């Protein structure tokens, strides 16, 4: 968390207006706790996000933005190209303004996502209480580059997770593929799924996930690994897998996710915008999976899949 008066790094991405959804996808992946989007005087779209000024974090954020832009390079170049830049920014009141955007939020019929600073005021941090009213509390400290649990794709997966757990088929294992803040793993552990594994290749995500797992007293319930999905041992199998990722990542990890799914298992594929829906759907079917149903919220899609 940034202290009052601490310098920040301000990141800018400028994209052609035709690449608006690509830009939103990238910024949501890197600055899930919030970013700004404006039209420039030339008619292009200007995206702005903030990170700590620490050398390590600012370099990591820059690298993530650059890599995601390059993954979409062909589409962006066709539309006119992009610019990526950064500058130091002094925001003495940034912390309080940022906090004011994130309040507790009820999700589905099972969850309430609570920012760490609110949970602390309510004496929930470190508490052994497993429920707040009739809902499971998920305490998160998003930081400037991590999810608050409010993103539409996260809400879709959380809602579906709560619904699936009521099915007669017992879910004994859950894999959070690309765990980010670990919000989905924490939810799965609340539902008493015996084995919960959270995996992410990104060092920043792993550190944030570790912090959130501790806030929720789930250290003994969730196995957290810094690893590439494609390097997970194929001897492992999971009844339920959630992959709430970027479209390009779905394509790369789909073969391994299919191998990791039990015969009666279910795969939740999220983080999909309409422009990628058909292509990802074909990729899923090419791996002998059936899309049983589709859910959408604010333009983001979730595909619930099983073996054909």
Descriptive overview:
This protein is α/β, with parallel strands linked by helices and 308 residues long. It folds into 2 domains: 7-97, 2-Layer Sandwich (Alpha-Beta Plaits); 143-307, Rossmann fold (3-Layer(aba) Sandwich), CATH 3.40.50.150. The protein has 10 helices and 14 strands. The protein has helices at 20-30, 55-71, 73-79, 94-100, 116-121, 152-164, 183-190, 203-215, 247-260, 274-286, and strands spanning 7-15, 36-39, 45-52, 83-90, 105-107, 111-115, 136-140, 173-177, 195-200, 222-226, 238-244, 261-273, 289-297, 300-307. The strands form 3 sheets. The protein has a 7-stranded mixed sheet, sandwiched between helices. Strands 2-3-1-4 form a 4-stranded antiparallel sheet. Strand 2 and strand 3 form a beta hairpin. Helix 1 runs antiparallel to helix 2 (55-71), helix 6 runs parallel beside helix 7 (183-190) and helix 9 (247-260) runs parallel beside helix 10 (274-286). The protein is globular, with a radius of gyration of 19 Å. The chain starts with 6 loop residues before the first strand and ends with a strand. The relative contact order is 0.11.
- Report the total helices: 10
Q: Please list the strands of the largest sheet in the order they lie side by side.
A: 10-9-8-11-12-14-13
Q: Return the CATH class of the largest domain.
A: Alpha Beta
The gross shape turns out to be globular
Low-confidence stretches: 1-5
